[in-house]
């Protein structure tokens, strides 16, 4: 008798436990850790689960152990290194294996029971087939396939899974083939010479027979010239290519196929774009870059993460390229993480120029099948493989087979943090752990380090490599702090511009130079207000004012997307005196067109770049000097490199400084320094004008002096005093409910329980800045945890309390979760 074997599997569900299934004897020889299997979960659902562990331990309990229904993969689709990484993520980020599985794998590799069942054409139906089974098989033969819900309806049962299970055992139906992959290989029609024309005589006779059918003869001659008689002796040609290049119609081709002079065959082709303009020479590094390159290499044997702190335009990318080149020569893979893939057109072009078709991109805009192909391409070595993957945070979860280097560009960016849904991970920190697992080197690059990373340098966890000068010794920009209050008092403001900024823009335009203006608020005006009673239109779903978008002639909620038309009058007193308050990028664009009517002005924000390729088009137009002034939100701070920008203006620095968050000064410095870095290239120093009503603010003085160290030291003393990161870890407990009173009750109960565990290291419960989003009221409790060995056990206690409060009968409808290291 075969020994019983069991598998613990990971289901794509937010469940804290593993589930154990029996492995039928027929499957035991083929099952492996990391393959997908089909399992029945509950009464009605099938899922594709991942095999996590194989063992002989019979589960204890009074329940039936279900069998695995099918194995989907001949070989594992995840690696042992990934399993180690997932286990770390589960422990660190207070999430479940199912949530990590769901986040990591492309949807086409995660299947659920909306899937189809079909008749197995190789099954011979016996005469004595039970009636219900026979009826179902006949239905499947007639319909081709059906989903489980329609089968339930056809058989008049709540669940037909028992019948399906019997048919599966008899090999009468195919669940796995329909369930196995919503991913299917991409095929393309290719044209071959028919075997009947196997020699020169047969070909001559065929051409002779087509004398009166000139188009057919021309097409056959063209085909032969491009295949058999081509210098490369190609065996086939793509149908599309044949028709386009010959200029002859599909009807003529069909006739040649019918005459059996040619034949058509569909061949699997990849969806991945390996096209490139060829690799260009990688330039030698200058002295400063070479020094940084050598220092980074020195740290490779130590396994220490390296923080590469280089000022804007110091040439960090060229150092990365040299390091990548070295790893590729060793046969290693490289992961290049960027905060937002859609905002890295220039970087991707530079890497493609350096490495040609070895560089591939992975991001959420790809369709499911493309994501699957990149997944498999990363996992398996193929004739054509991407050896460099450029991607946003999800690229850190790909199945690398031989990873040698990870680069985290702009490591300070909070875009690396996943907010919703779980797992709420930070890809920068995941990258550090991933590098340790693979024994690869990880480089965190930035001009404005996060305090956490710089603290890790100070505590000797990370190594520091600095690049203090700009490439070709270009000067850092001149920084000017312009006092808006003083200019307003003296009536010197020109619309939204102080005299300093107005004069600088005017000079730049006269010199045919370019200008970037930064305002971190899109739309025309942040809100409308009644001039009589002060009424402000609010979103019906969220506790936030509606933003006026002039180009839409509408009010829009930036949290839930709710849109409504402009009010005719005040919603309270019916006055028609409705005024716009504040200014967004749309209003700035309009005002500038009045002040500088000759200038070509464009806007870069989420609204203006929604259309496909709109962002790339804007970049091209600005690079080619078709735009004089570019107005934008944070998008203009993201590592753009333009040769002709002489002036950068920050229109409202107060908006950044006054945000109620313990990281607001750190983020203000980073944003201002990053956007300032766009000014000045080649042989000219740039100029940055920071408009503010707080000209003596220490952060503005520090950014004007490029003095990151002073900011860091000052902020660190405050954070240590008040127990904030990086001295303490933060866990944010979020509670949501559609009923405000029930939320308040649950939040107070939760806070009381946490105070018993952690004493005074608890803040809240408190409403966040926006206390209701999409009709959900929410409250937050912040837990401050010491960085010691008790960290993991403390997080487990928090999870236990969350689980406990959710299961209380009076808390039905409550959503609660933990967010570790919130941003």
Automatic annotation (TrEMBL):
MF-aspect GO terms: 3'-5' DNA helicase activity; ATP binding; ATP hydrolysis activity; DNA binding; zinc ion binding
GO cellular component: primosome complex
EC number(s) stated in the UniProt entry for this protein: 5.6.2.4
Catalytic activity: Couples ATP hydrolysis with the unwinding of duplex DNA by translocating in the 3'-5' direction; ATP + H2O = ADP + phosphate + H(+)
Organism domain of life: Bacteria
Leading EC class: isomerase
Assigned keywords, A-Z: ATP-binding, DNA replication, DNA-binding, Helicase, Hydrolase, Isomerase, Metal-binding, Nucleotide-binding, Primosome, Zinc
Helicase ATP-binding domain: residues covered: 297-467
Protein family (similarity comment): Belongs to the helicase family. PriA subfamily.
The protein's role, per its UniProt record: Initiates the restart of stalled replication forks, which reloads the replicative helicase on sites other than the origin of replication. Recognizes and binds to abandoned replication forks and remodels them to uncover a helicase loading site. Promotes assembly of the primosome at these replication forks.
Complex and partners: Component of the replication restart primosome.
HAMAP family listed in its UniProt record: PriA
Annotated protein name in UniProt: Replication restart protein PriA
Biological classification of the source: Bacteria, Pseudomonadati, Bacteroidota, Bacteroidia, Marinilabiliales
Gene: priA
